[in-house]
Amino acid sequence: MNGKLQARLMKYAPEMREAMTAYTEGIVRVIAGAGTGKTTVLQNRMIYLYETGKAKGSEILCVSFTNKAVQEIKDRIPRGIGNHPLYNPFVATFHSFSAYYLHRGNMASFNFPDDFNIAGDIEHEAISEIIAKDLNLSEKELSWTELMLMIEKRKIQNYREYVLLLKDSSGKQILEKQAQATTLEEAVFYRYLFLQRKNNLLDFSDLLCFLLVLLEDDLIFREELQEQYQYILVDEFQDISPIEFAIMRIVAEKHGNFFCVGDPDQCIYSFRGSNIQFLTQLETYFPNHQVHTIVLTENHRSSGNILTVGNTIIEKNKNRYPKRLFTKKSNGLLVFATLQKNHPDEARWIANEICQRITILNAQSKFGRTRKAERYGNIAVLVRNTWLIQQLKSTFSEFKIPYSDGTFPLLQRKCVKDLIAYLKFIVFHDDLSFKRIINTPPRRIGFSRWGKIAQTAHFRGIRYYEALNYLSKTDTDFQTPEVKEYFEVTDDLYRNFKEQYPAFLFREILDRTGYGEYAEREDPQNRMYLECFLKSVEKWRYAPVNPALTFPVAEFLNDLALKPEKIFGEHKEDTVKLLTVHRSKGLEFETVYVAGLNQNIFPSSKAVTLDEKEEERRLMYVACTRAKSALILSAFFKGTDFYGPSEYLSDLKTCPAVVFSNLFNDSITEQVEEREFKDIVN
Q1: How confident is the model over 451-464, as pLDDT tens digits?
Q2: Distance CA 94, CA 237 (A)
Q3: What is the rounded average pLDDT of the residues 358-369?
Q4: How far is CA 586 from CA 134, 496, 647, in A?
């Protein structure tokens, strides 16, 4: 080990150094509590493998679950090793890793093109509309979020069966399965598969399942990956699904060097197939290897009082790897718990408290009483369910508090979705994009004419685009100037799209299709939204990672589906973040409010079994440990389907790190006997 590397490693605590350097050969499990530096461990372990000559950079594979985590690992690498040209480990999310190899000439065995389309909101909206119409379902019967979880679960459980079904490019086998369906779930599932097959569309589950089948069935491909990657590192291992774990085990099979970092107390994605036992019982999955375990318990993020609350919450779980986090930081502020009359009152209390916090801390900073001013961007409000966010948004607007919800707002605008659909149609000529854009702007394709297009496509076994082309030559109803111009423009754009950058193509689409003027007539603000979108696209740079994506638009659409941060940037604006706890995973904030801490909300009323209840408690633990300096817990008194403050607040009644407010709000005195919060929680 060279002196520079040794000096670098000596900056860290002994248990972190052990995780960075020990047991380089074999199976290693690092149990890393919240805020204990797992990203630092992963980064330095890769550098250690490279600097000590154990591996070339290209022989190291590191996978994580979020683009943010991947970017953090990548960003920290140059600080440790400089711009060394040979240090080039593959660091990616599971989905990006899968897409990378599927795009590289490996889709022919599935009868899919290598430039397959990756499903996003546009495709899911179109599919849900088609399924609702085809199966005569009401909005109440078709909860798209729940159905997508059902589809994802079925795919994971029967990955080989459905992947082989999708190999039939005609879709006939899938239609036979749909005809034999005995439940609504089955009918929806097979209809979804048929629409995927028809549009050469893969969703995020498919990326993983297709890669696993490819690894299992293609010996040459499997040996290529096993030889390429001699050291496998997996981040956030507690959230790994059976499919993801199977992929990593196959890739690691030849060299047997498998390093995983995770925290059983933060396993919160069982609804997507994650299983806490993959981490806690890792030995059973590598029976012929010794599994070395390293435990990290020093938290570098939160104050002592926040950790006390987190430890108090999580230690009530029975099925866990025993550990207790500690910190060398001071205890800091006491954790504050409050109760308000109802959810609107709770939102107003939080908004008012944030305004006061910003004003007071900034004034103290100005006069030198604190080290730095408070920013909105340092604050997060976390909730269990998305429906709680709407009231917060409304109230924050009233209080003029800037906020964001962790999504990319531009991508939710109809005009932006239309523009993306135009680009996707030019590239893929798929039915879903065609259906969205053909009459936008209006081209006199009404209900009757659309029926002819759909009928022709069905009976001739062709796509909607081909059906319209056929009808434009055989049916006078479609021999109109609008249809003729549509073909002239889209065909011309298709002929040249591989040579053009996406920003240029988007502007061409706006000008030549008339969509720009149409969108502005629909809503004058659309012009601003489209310009903001185009400015982001113009900043995007074509830096092809995958040699199979040989033209800018293909790389752009891949980034749009898998790495939108590369186009729109990270969420670094100075806004309060309104997030579900699931979305907050992996993030940290100076100040965190956990709102809606009511029984039947958090924990959820859907948590019935012991495993479900323990996962809810882990979710609460994740919420608390996002906070660095200040943690505020909030509940409300009145609700229709929930019953007073959460059991988690009851757990904290005797916790010395928590102060419960006395009378919660003057307006509640008429409704409730005056007593302390501790007396109201059971």
Answers
A1: 999 999 988 889 99
A2: 12
A3: 66
A4: 40, 42, 25
- 158: which residues sit within 8 A by CB, 6+ positions away? none
Q: Give the length of the chain.
A: 682
CA separation for the pair 397, 391 (Å, rounded): 10
DSSP string, 236-251: SGGG--HHHHHHHHHH
**Which conformational region is residue 84 in: left (phi greater than 0), alpha (psi within -120 to 50 degrees), or beta?**
beta
- Reported as type and span, the H/E element at residue 486 is helix 481-496
> Which residue blocks in 497-637 are alpha helix, DSSP H?
502-512, 515-522, 525-539, 552-562, 565-568, 581-584, 610-624
For residue 114, the model assigns a pLDDT of 86
C-alpha span between 71 and 547 (Å, rounded): 21
Encode pLDDT of 9-58 as tens digits: 889 999 999 999 999 999 999 999 999 999 999 999 999 999 899 999 89
Determine the number of helices (DSSP H) and then strands (DSSP E) in the chain: 31, 15
Query: Are 112 and 163 in contact, with CB atoms under 8 Å apart?
Result: no
β strands within 189-290, DSSP E: 201-202, 231-234, 258-262
pTM of the model: 0.90
Peptide bond before 85: cis, by omega within 30 degrees of 0? no
Enumerate residues 6+ apart whose C-beta is below 8 A from 83: none
pLDDT score, position 313: 97
Mean pLDDT to the nearest integer, 487-512: 93
Given phi > 0 = left and psi -120 to 50 = alpha, else beta, which region is 580? beta
C-alpha to C-alpha distance for 616 and 612, rounded to whole angstroms: 6
pLDDT surpassing 90 at residue 205: yes
3-state secondary structure (DSSP) of residue 90:
strand
Residue 598 pairs with which residues in a beta bridge? 645
Residue 381 is predicted with a pLDDT of: 97
